[in-house]
Specification:
The structure holds two protein chains of two kinds. By secondary structure, chain A is an all-alpha fold. Chain A has a single domain, classed as MetI-like (MetI-like fold). Helix content of chain A is about 75%, strand content about 0%. Chain A has twelve helices and no strands. By secondary structure, chain B is mainly alpha-helical. Chain B is about 80% helix and about 0% strand. Chain B contains 13 helices and no strands. Chain B starts with a helix and ends in a 7-residue tail after the last helix. The chains are: A mainly alpha, B mainly alpha. At the A-B interface, helix 6, helix 7, helix 10, helix 11 and helix 12 of A face helix 1, helix 6, helix 7, helix 8 and helix 11 of B.
């Protein structure tokens, strides 16, 4: 009884991941809403040139601070730039930084977590102590310091946000690794003389991938929020490149007269983060065994 | 309890020590010569040398490290490169503002979050539960500066209930006016996290045997929920609250900017903009101390909430 599912997971890890994700989606209807919203935003960002005829950087002094109208559905900012166009192109920056930093954190964090869980003992204790420390330090402050010191370029922002998101991935990868390394199929791999890297990559990793991906969707939301926060503080990708956080920063200066300048991008960030949280939250309920009976 | 506290305190000291080392390394790996950054490209070599000596940058790295640790422990955190006043003085001046904001928003978050979480749990999968879950998810999706801008627009600009710049002191009503919006802003986000963790912790506890036993022997349902079950759900609530207090300190940066309120957040943004390295170093030390302090408080709260913790 016990060996059978192990063998299935081991020989056929890819379909099992797909199956478990399908199960998750079917038990959590809200995940579908989150996924749909997220995909719409991604598509809108990709199709930005088709959805607007304006350039997000082109200034037009004659339409400065125009209220929303049929020509500019969300109005224009103080340089006469179309808000809708800036939103669309800004989404690209948010998504790019969010996806890249989450991917890096996922990769580095998983490697750290798997190695710590696999080796155990003092190495594990030391690594996890460092991770806990990083986790306890306010992420935004850490990101702020790193970006300020390295300089606010796209790459540096990605590095800073990735750095702050490594600990949760290390934790989520470590826990199942500890359980899996005691299982019979891993013992079998060892008996067959497989090298440790081979066991870790081809036999441990596929079994913890679902958890890591779920965590990824939640932290993608977090990374996007952090990027927007940094941009709001003034540590975003340099203007005139449109970023949502930067748009709110600029809009905030005119908040008394032209509130929509700050409110429209604010709602955009909220919508994107909310969509990802809906998605990740539903996924987590189904993957986390402790909460499984809740669905 | 004493042994437990001593053990936790020892761990806190080790953690603090490690983070201080990290801060030291972080500040040193900054590309560029701080002296050059401060004085600018046209500074003479002798002026640069004098500044390096004043900042202790001419010493071997190891000596700098020892000096840094000594200074951090003795409260001698150097002098701000911009204002020329002691770093610790500048920090202590704004620290009460940040602590006040954090504590008030924490209380707000607990007062709103715990009851909402409990209600959602006992009305599981009913309309109220769905409503609370969606609203709390919205709350934690909200970047702190977006909610701050919206609050400011609604209550300080549209309906002029509160001042736009919130840094007044004096009478109680002035204090209330100045703290209300920033605290509500952080409180909403805090409440969202607490609601969710309370709900899931309560769902788990309500399935346990002792709850059934209590009901079977005739304890009123309300007493079962609020006294028996909630008490047992406290540990995860405390964990999240403690962890979130750290995040909250990050969020207070955004809140302070939007509401133009003094505090650690505004100080660190100013220090970053002006490349005030000694101030930055001091800020990182204070943030570390706060995080370690929160951890100790969380541990004490564990002990108070659940006597079994002390035995670990």
């Amino acid at each position: 009884m016990k060996a059978a599912p192990d063998a299935a997971i081991e020989t056929n890890s890819e379909p099992s991941l797909r199956r478990s994700l399908m199960r998750v989606f079917n038990t959590n209807k809200t995940s579908w809403i989150g996924l749909a919203l997220f995909l719409i935003i991604v598509l809108a960002a990709l199709a930005a040139p088709l959805l607007t005829r304006y350039d997000p950087i082109d200034q037009d002094v004659f339409t400065k601070l125009a209220a929303p109208s049929s020509a500019h559905i969300f109005g224009t900012d103080e340089y006469g730039r179309d808000i809708w166009a800036r939103l669309l192109y800004g989404a690209r920056i948010s998504l790019m930084i969010g996806l890249a930093s989450t991917a890096i954190a996922m990769l580095v964090g998983s490697v750290i977590g798997v190695l710590a869980g696999w080796h155990g003992g003092r190495f594990d204790a030391l690594i996890m102590q460092i991770m806990d420390m990083l986790l306890a330090f306010p992420a935004l402050i850490l990101g702020l310091i790193v970006v300020a010191m390295l300089g606010p370029s796209m790459t540096n922002i990605i590095i800073a946000i990735a750095l702050t998101s490594i600990p949760p991935f290390a934790r989520i990868a470590r826990a199942p690794t500890i359980v899996i390394k005691e299982r019979e199929f891993i013992e079998a791999c060892r008996a067959l003389g497989y090298s440790t890297p081979r066991i870790l990559v081809f036999h441990v990793l596929p079994n913890i991938l679902a958890e890591i991906l779920v965590m990824g969707s939640l932290w993608l939301a977090n990374s996007i929020r952090t990027e927007a926060s940094l941009a709001f503080i003034g540590l975003g990708v340099k203007p005139p490149t449109p970023t949502w956080g930067g748009m709110i920063r600029e809009g905030f200066e005119n908040i008394l007269d032209n509130a929509w300048l700050a409110v429209v991008p604010g709602c955009a960030i909220l919508l994107l983060v909310f969509a990802l949280n809906l998605l990740g939250d539903g996924l987590r309920d189904a993957v986390d065994p402790k909460l499984k009976n809740e669905a | 309890m004493t042994a437990f506290l001593i053990r936790r305190a020892a761990l806190a000291i080790v953690t603090g020590f490690a983070v201080l080392t990290l801060v030291f390394v972080l500040v040193r790996i900054v590309p560029g010569d701080p002296a050059l950054v401060i004085l600018g490209d046209y500074a003479s070599e002798s002026a640069l040398q004098a500044l390096r000596e004043r900042l202790g940058l001419n010493l071997p790295l190891w000596d700098q490290y020892v000096e840094f640790l000594k200074g951090a422990l003795m409260g001698n955190w150097g002098v701000s490169m911009v204002t020329g006043r002691p770093v610790i003085e500048e920090i202590l001046k704004v620290l009460p503002w940040t602590i006040e904001l954090t504590v008030v928003s924490l209380i707000l978050g607990l007062l709103v979050g715990v009851p909402l979480g409990v209600w959602a749990a006992i009305r599981r999968n009913q309309t109220l539960d769905y409503l609370i879950r969606v609203v709390s998810l919205l709350g934690l999706s909200m970047p702190a500066f977006v909610s701050a801008v919206i609050l400011l627009l609604m209550f300080a600009i549209q309906v002029r209930w509160f001042p736009v710049i919130s840094a007044q002191t004096g009478s109680l009503s002035a204090w209330f006016q100045s703290i209300a919006l920033p605290a509500i802003n952080l409180g909403i986000i805090m409440a969202a996290y607490i609601t969710r963790v309370t709900r899931s912790a309560m769902l788990e506890v309500l399935q346990e045997d002792f709850v059934r036993t209590a009901r079977a022997k005739g304890v009123p349902w309300n007493a079962v929920v609020w006294r028996h079950a909630l008490r047992n759900a406290l540990i995860p609530i405390i964990t999240i609250t403690g962890l979130f207090l750290g995040i909250q300190i990050g969020n207070s940066v955004l809140t302070e900017i939007v509401f133009n309120r003094p505090g650690l957040g505004k100080l660190i943004v100013g220090a970053l903009n002006q490349r005030d390295y000694t101030m930055l170093q001091g800020m990182m030390v204070i943030y570390t101390l706060i995080v370690v302090f929160i951890n100790v408080l969380t541990d004490i709260a564990y002990g108070l909430a659940d006597p079994r913790v002390k035995l670990r």
